[in-house]
Specification:
The complex is a heterodimer of chains A (about 280) and B (about 350). By secondary structure, chain A is mostly helical. Chain A has 13 helices and no strands. Classes of the chains: A mainly alpha (about 280), B alpha+beta (about 350).
């Protein structure tokens, strides 16, 4: 028996070429741009970098981004757990419709997502006149940014949990119920521990997107410096004003967030062997 | 405790899982629900447990109507086929779960719970494994822990859904006898679901044979074997040869006059003759009350010789156990007289 089979085993040369191409591609399109962000941010030294970041408008953008994430991530965590619980553990009419709806934000362009809110709450929108009459501002204000972010990020947790919960089935919950546990005790002591790593993973991805969202937020924000500018929007403004160091300094914070997310995700996967079964985005 | 199930029906979409099923258990009885998949046995068990609810009918515990009571309030012990142990809890925590989730005023003290857990670990013969996690146990050990967890709440009734279904043959056999001993020690009324007739015959006091959402027969292992109520029970439990017959005037005619057997039930029209392999004796090929068969294969099994044989006009090969002394070989023509048989 000669051990080599030409249809499944490439020659060492071909293998090296394929792997090399892969790495070259990654370096060119992923690693190099990332490095350039940090190079650009530090082009005029650490002192300038620090000055740019302590600019009041930059600080306001960072604060707003953190606020938006602090609201939308918990909201979507709760919604995601509730939706996947309902979908994975119960049979009801309209279940497939609910699953499709959860995926909607993934299939709609973020700009369109933003426009939906302008159409609903904007000055010329359906609810606009009523809102103006009652002195409530949603569009071009923080509430609109939060709404748009919640909309765009809501599939992340649910998508992560639905396959996980469906795979685990109902036996554990039924066992807990038969042992006399209440619905809340069952959720707290049995369901939640079973999904905790998947939930953490979903929250992580949700957070990364909430902080990084540009399109939908851009439509509803109005780009008011110091008031309705999130970090991604602030990067754009600075860049358009040829303040490259400032733009890259703020961008480097977002890039660091991405790296931290990636790091934690890798650790989670390695440590707990989380199976990625949900849609990857 | 005694359980009464009255005219329970349950449909899932267009599928009827249970069709007006009624059943009564005696206190302390060990009952097996036996049937092929889709027969409704698991649905019946879950309805008794309160994990599923019937569309019609009632479930009574000791005369008390429990039909709408959720599982959490029924005080039943339920054991799942796949154990359903809480994977993030130790064995001891799993067993204690039903006690720790009780309301404060009903909850035993920590020391009392620990004592109970130790006692149950002793009962399931795993006293050293309290600190392990379920993933560190074998299948048989996990199922024993699941049983201990169910027993911890001192249930009024023990329900087991295919408790040995996920285990290999040898472990199944060991656990069977062990489960029966636990039942006898605790005196709990127990109901278990199985599709394995051997399991049901070996440990149950009475067997409920189900098919297509209805109960075909309820009886002791001896009854369902020796006096099957329906053709289904006869063929589902134990080995059975089935032959088409014509029934007329107290006689059943096999084939076109091949053999004529007395038909005590005096049925009329097309029927099915059921003969167990060992319920036959050797006869002359010309005897009117015997089947003339052509031997296909012959091999000795224990103290009898097993032959497979063909009867003219019947497609399926028949199986008979004859004394080894009968030196049959493939191609031989024999007369086989049914000593005991049933016609449905």
């Amino acid at each position: 028996m000669s051990g080599s089979n030409p249809t499944t085993v490439e020659s060492p040369w071909a293998r090296r070429a394929l792997i090399g191409t892969g790495f070259l591609f990654l370096a060119l399109f992923l690693f190099l741009p990332l490095v350039m962000v940090f190079v650009g941010a530090l082009a005029k030294g650490w002192a300038t970098f620090a000055t740019e970041l302590s600019d009041p408008d930059a600080l306001a953008a960072i604060r707003l981004t953190l606020l938006v994430a602090a609201i939308s991530v918990p909201v979507n965590a709760v919604f995601g757990v509730a939706a996947s619980w309902a979908i994975a553990k119960f049979d009801f009419r309209g279940k497939s419709l609910l699953i499709s709806l959860i995926d909607l934000p993934f299939s709609v362009s973020p700009v369109v997502s933003g426009l939906i809110f302008v159409l609903l709450f904007g000055a010329q929108g359906w609810l606009g006149p009523w809102l103006t009459a009652h002195g409530v501002r949603i569009i071009f204000a923080v509430p609109g940014i939060v709404l748009a972010t919640v909309f765009v990020t809501f599939p992340f947790v649910a998508r992560e949990l639905i396959p996980l919960m469906a795979e685990q089935g109902r036996d554990d919950e039924e066992a807990a119920r038969s042992l006399g546990a209440s619905g809340w005790q069952t959720f707290w002591h049995v369901t939640l521990p079973n999904i905790r790593w998947g939930l953490l993973y979903g929250v992580l991805l949700c957070n990364a997107r909430a902080m990084g969202e540009f399109g939908a937020v851009s439509v509803v924000s109005g780009h008011i410096r110091g008031l309705t500018n999130t970090m991604p929007l602030h990067v754009e403004i600075l860049y358009n004003e040829y303040d490259f160091v400032g733009a890259f300094a703020v961008a480097s914070l977002l890039a660091s967030l991405a790296l931290v997310t990636l790091g934690v995700k890798t650790v989670l996967e390695w440590r707990f062997g989380i199976h990625r079964a949900g849609a990857a985005h | 405790m005694s359980i009464v199930v009255e005219n329970i029906s349950r449909r899932f979409g267009g599928f009827t899982a249970l069709d007006r099923v009624s059943l009564e258990t005696k206190p302390g009885e060990f009952l097996a629900l036996l049937g092929p998949s889709g027969s409704g046995k698991t649905t019946l068990l879950r309805t008794i447990a309160g994990l599923d609810f019937a569309d019609e009918g009632h479930v009574l515990f000791d005369g008390q109507d429990m039909t709408g009571t959720p599982a959490a309030e029924r005080r039943i012990g339920f054991v799942f086929q796949n154990y359903a142990l809480f994977r993030h809890m130790t064995v001891a925590e799993n067993i204690a779960f039903g006690l720790t989730v009780r309301k404060r005023r009903d909850r035993p003290a920590k020391a009392a719970i620990a004592a109970k857990v130790a006692e149950l670990l002793e009962l399931i013969q795993l006293p050293q494994l309290g600190d392990r996690y379920p993933a560190q146990l074998s299948g048989g050990q996990r199922q024993r822990v699941a049983l201990a967890r169910a027993l911890a709440i001192e249930p009024r009734l023990l329900l087991l859904d295919e408790p040995f279904g996920a285990l290999d043959a040898q472990v199944r056999k060991d656990l069977r006898g062990w489960l029966r001993r636990i039942h006898d020690e605790t005196g709990l009324t127990s109901i278990f679901v199985t599709h394995d007739q051997e399991e049901a015959l070996e440990i149950a006091d009475r067997i409920v044979v189900m098919r297509g959402g209805v109960i075909e027969q309820v009886g002791t292992p001896h009854e369902v074997q020796s006096a099957p109520a329906t053709a289904f029970v006869s063929s589902f439990i134990g080995e059975t040869n089935r032959l088409p017959v014509m029934r007329r005037d107290g006689a059943a005619v096999v084939g076109e006059g091949l053999a004529v057997l007395p038909d005590e039930a005096r049925g009329h029209g097309v029927g099915e003759l059921h003969i167990r392999p060992h319920d036959v004796e050797l006869a002359e090929t010309g005897d009117k009350d015997a089947l003339a068969v052509t031997v296909l294969t012959a091999r000795p099994i224990g103290r009898s010789g097993r032959i497979t044989a063909q009867v003219a006009g019947v497609a399926e090969a028949l199986t008979f156990d004859l004394p080894v002394a009968v030196a049959a070989a493939a191609g031989d023509r024999l007369g086989v007289r049914p000593v005991r048989y049933r016609i449905f």
